[in-house]
Each structure stands twice: as structure tokens, then as C-alpha cells.
Design a protein that fits this description.
Blueprint (H helix, E strand, L loop, with lengths): L9 H14 L9 H8 L6 H16 L5 H6 L1 H7 L9 H8 L8 H16 L5 H14 L1 H6 L5 H8 L6 H16 L12 H7 L13 H26 L32 H18 L11 H9 L5 H29 L4 E3 L5 E4 L1 H29 L17
Antiparallel strand pairs: 1-2
Helix pairs in contact: 1-3, 8-11, 8-16, 11-13, 11-16, 13-14
Amino acid sequence: MEVDDFRMDMILAEACRADVDKFCAKVEPGQGRVHKCLREVSKQLSPTCRLEEMRMEEKEADNVQFSISLLRACSGEKGLFCHDVQPGSARVFRCLVENMASADFGDSCRSVIMQKLQRREANWRLDPALRRFCRADVDRLCAFEDAERIEDGAVKKCMAAKHEQLSTGCQRELARSLHMSFFIWQSGGTITAPCDADIQKYCLPKAQGSQVPPGAVSSCVADIVERMMQAEQPNKQRRLQAGDDSDADEGSGSNNSVPSQQGRKERPGSRNGAGQAKLAAAGAAAAKKASGTKPAQVLKLSEQCYRLAAIAAPSDVEQGFDASTIAYSMQTALTLSMQRVEQATGLQTLRRNGQGAVTAISLTGWTALAGVAAFVLVLFAGALYGIRQYLGHAHQGYSLVVKSPAGQ
């Protein structure tokens, strides 16, 4: 976990001692300042130090309780907007992001949230749901980019380029992640840089050189994509009527490499659920404030930008994210339970790889789970039997016999 003083983590202190002396010698230890310094120069760190910092940052991404800097900056916002959100699986962080455009959201907390979101842009592993659902796809399609461990967004770019080969769950999480990239857009962003020229041209005519409100760009770009898709529909109909369906599913002009979104019934920027509704409303308001009235001319994004925007945020992102966080929470809870069993009994209930990461439940672990399940079943059956006996319910029906008094 993140600690106030990096020296309290002996493994990290040993791995990063030389890097701290080289890059952060003038930084006073405490309050996470050395961690912040090291992450700002992550590309220049030694391999061992960079890996340890990544490992720690992944833990922080999973649970906001491990991020001291975020808790300090966002204590008020956490109490105001997310007081009833259970920590774990990035739920609190997600809650803060959804409310980031609120007028009651402090600038210091917003700044920390933006920094962490930008870190996610560079390192896909810092997004718990994306890491959970895309691990196998990355190993299969983007192993080279991932092995480099260079925080330049290479893995996420690789997944976007090979979008159609990704599993359904990974496609969903990548869409959510790319939507967030547009939501926090800044010029020269790690992922959204191919859209900078289009965004400057279409979305920021009155806000050039000023700070862009969160959500302004994502709403604007989603609207342009919708217009482009609507404009393409008559062309598709004409081709189908002419009997030429060879490119019926392709975009017009130079956008023929845009991946299809199977089952999409709404535009890329549409979302369901309360959280995405907040983002949509905030984005629309910010887009109107930043851009003024929408231009009447036909808008067209570049091929690279259109590809990213078309992938981002299909209609089922909200439900998919909820499902992924629930699944991730269950997996985390099960792993923690197995680790407690290991500590209490000394039995190996989990399988680990060479780096010590949990990969599967061992046969002993499954046996222990079966025993626990059987014990719970016996307790439930015993409780049910006791209740039935207490209430006097017999297993079979009965007949009530009433005897009349003598002489009647």
C-alpha cells in the first residue's frame, strides 16, 4: 500500500534506493511525496524500482484506502458523494470520477483524480476492471507491448487496433476506458492524441487556450460520431438496394477500418445507469459551455480518431462495468479467504506463479471450499428443521377429529 514515507516499505526502499538518490534527493520523505516524484520519472527508473512502484500503484488502484494522497485530497468529496460506497474494486474511485464535474467538487481532489486517470492512460494495469477482463487478450494479442512495461499507452493502443479480436468482456471494458479518455481529454493525451486536431477544430472554437471542463470533449466527439453514422445510413441503403453489400458495414471515405459494434442500439456516447447519466449530463453541459452552438456543417473525424471514438462507450458500458466490478469483488473476496485459510492451517490452497501472483485455486483449496459449503448446508438444514419443530409443523397433513359430548 502507499505509505507516507517510502522508507517504511522495506522492499520498495531497497529496490529504489539508487533511484531516489538520483531523481528525488531533494524531495522530503513523507505524505507520499517520494512516490509522486518517482512516478513522474517512471520511464527513467531502474527496472526493479519501476516494477515495485507499479506493483504498489496497482494495489492503490484496486482500493482507494491504499492511496494516502487521494484520501487526503478527497476526504470531503468522499464523505459528500461516496459515503455509502464500499471500498474495493475501485468503486470509491469510480464514484469520485462520476461526480467530478459537480460544482461542490474541490479543485485539489479533482486535480488528484485527473492525475490518476492520466496514469491509467499510460498504464492499462492501473484500471482494475480492464486488467481483470483483458488479461488473457493482452497475453494473446499484445504480449510484446506489455512485456516492455513502458508507460506510453502501448498496450491500450494495441487493444484498440485489434478490437475485433478481443473477447466480449474486454471489448466492453476497453470501450469504457476509452470513453473516460475522452471525458478527461487534454491536448497531447496518451490515447486521444490522434483526435487533437479534430477536437480543436470542432469542439473548442471558443475555448482554445483555456482549461476544458471534464466531459465537454467526450460529449462533443460522441455527437460527431453519431452524425457520421447517421449520414452513412443512406449510402448503406443505396448499396444494399444496388445489390452491393461488400462494404455495407464499413464507414464512408477513409473510415472503413472502424470496428463494428455488434448489438449496439444507441450512439457511442449514450450510457445507461445513474453513474453514466451523471457523466452524460455533465459532459453535455460542459460541451455547450465550451463550444457554444453546434456548427451546422457536416462534420467528419479523421480515420484514427473515428476508430477510437466509435469504440468508446457503447450503450451497455454501465451494466458491463457493474458486472465486472461485482465479478472482480467476488474473486478478490475468495482469494483473501483462501489466503486466510493458508495462514491458519499452513495448507497450500492457492497456486502462484514465479512472481508470487495468485493464478488459481489448488485442489486442496477446492476441497476446503467444498467442506465449508457442506458445513453451511448442514447448518442451514439443521436450522430449518429446528424452526419446523418449534412451530409444530409436521411433515404430513393431519385430520382434526372432534368428539361430541355423550347423549348428543
